[in-house]
Amino acid sequence: MRIKRSCIGIAFIITLLLAVVPAPAAADQYVGGIPLETVKEGTVSGGLWHDSFVGTAPVREATKQYSLPDYTEIKWARLYVTVYCGHMQNNYEHRATVKFNGGSGMQTLGVEELRKPYSYPIYGGDGPVWVNDHCNRVTSDYVMWYDVTNRITARNPVAEVMVDQPEGYKGTLDGRIKLVTLVVAYDDGDDDEVYYWVNQGHDVHSYYVEDIGETYIGETTFGTENLPEDDERKFAAEFSAIYLASNVGEFEFNAEPLDANPPQGAYSGYQIWDVSDLMEPGTTSTLTYTRDLGVAGSGGNYLGAFFKIPLALLSVRYPEEEVGSIRVTSVPAGATIFLDDEATQWTTNTTIPGIPAGDHSIRVEADRYRVPDDRWVTVTKGANTTAHFTLEPITGSIEVTSEPAGAWVYLNGENMSVVTPATL
């Protein structure tokens, strides 16, 4: 019975501890938010590129021309627009018209009616509001996005955004444009392998959380556990954050802090980090983010009191393999080819493709022939190297006798045209 009581006591303590340890918050507990999730991943040869218009002054019209890198094909592209409505909860009505010229003329992507109130979850409200399937509101900002993959035909696409007041609305008008961001995944014709992830949301960390004695750490993951673990090529990993804030937040990538620069705009910014040394292929990569915790929230300095992040991008580049080929011949043909002391599926005379550049040993082996010494050859990228072997047969003599003498002699089924006794 004592043992049972001890087990019950231990189980009760564990249950109590689990009850008092808070689970990670799914979103800002006060105002709500939409945590980032992977909306697109893939592999390209060129890379994952992005550029942004960032609002430096309260403007309701913005034009941004982008300069894309050289590409052979656009595999995926999305345009993101963020508009500020002027209040964290009130329905200050606006209309946003978004146009795009990918090289075939200016076209309207959408006319968005931004007329939704917002309510805080802390007071029983619903939090994030969906205007439609490509636009949402979180607190004072609307984020909208458009697929422009098939609209890009040139290297200098242009986006235009205009915000105005709907007919009949006489209330407060703000409508400043915070961000106009283009994200593009592209091929460029080489043999690099670039794995990429686009994590999208509309997450926020407000100082209200700390004011009520809570804490919030935003988190999103990238599927780098699927990267090749045994690839000998040296990869390069690049992480980008595109955020909405007057003061940059705090970031950690795989539990390592990232140094962040001030935002480029008055209300938004972006930054790119080299995270090659911070990730391990075969394991999931995790980004965490918060507002600038050095700001005391309601203490009066609001620049770092709110932090939002709609996009986090990761790309991992494996450079194209430098390979060449070796043409291996022998007399006679049909000998097994050994590459770097390992038997291959190939026999002479043939060309072995896809051999990494560098020095390699080659030899061939055939039954009833002496094994020649290895030949060392140097393989260079895109070139064909040759190796030739003249095989020396293994020979000896056989004395053949019989009783009675005079029998025909056969070797391997072939009549040797001699009779016993004889020496072959």
Give your account of this protein's structure.
- There is one protein chain.
- The protein has 424 residues and is mainly beta.
- The protein has two helices and 30 strands.
- The protein has helices at 2-20, 208-211; strands at 34-44, 47-54, 61-65, 73-84, 94-101, 107-114, 129-132, 135-138, 141-147, 158-164, 177-187, 193-206, 218-222, 236-244, 250-253, 256-258, 268-274, 285-290, 306-318, 323-331, 336-339, 342-347, 350-356, 358-365, 375-379, 384-390, 399-400, 408-411, 414-419, 422-423.
- The strands form eight sheets. It has a six-stranded antiparallel β-sheet, with no helix packed on it. Strands 1-12-19-14-17 form a five-stranded antiparallel β-sheet. Strands 3-10-5-6 form a four-stranded antiparallel β-sheet, with no helix packed on it.
- The protein is elongated and about 125 Å long.
- It starts with a helix and ends with a strand.
Helix content: under 10%
> How is the main sheet built?
6 strands, antiparallel
Q: Please give the number of β-strands.
A: 30
Order of adjacent strands in the largest pleated sheet: 2-11-4-9-8-7
Pick out its properties.
424 residues; mainly beta
Structure summary:
With 424 residues, the protein is mainly beta. Helix content is 5%, strand content 49%.
Give the topology, please:
Layout: H1 2-20, E1 34-44, E2 47-54, E3 61-65, E4 73-84, E5 94-101, E6 107-114, E7 129-132, E8 135-138, E9 141-147, E10 158-164, E11 177-187, E12 193-206, H2 208-211, E13 218-222, E14 236-244, E15 250-253, E16 256-258, E17 268-274, E18 285-290, E19 306-318, E20 323-331, E21 336-339, E22 342-347, E23 350-356, E24 358-365, E25 375-379, E26 384-390, E27 399-400, E28 408-411, E29 414-419, E30 422-423
Parallel strand pairs: 20-26
Antiparallel strand pairs: 1-12, 2-11, 3-10, 4-9, 4-11, 5-6, 5-10, 7-8, 8-9, 12-19, 13-18, 14-17, 14-19, 15-16, 15-18, 20-23, 21-22, 21-24, 24-25, 27-30, 28-29
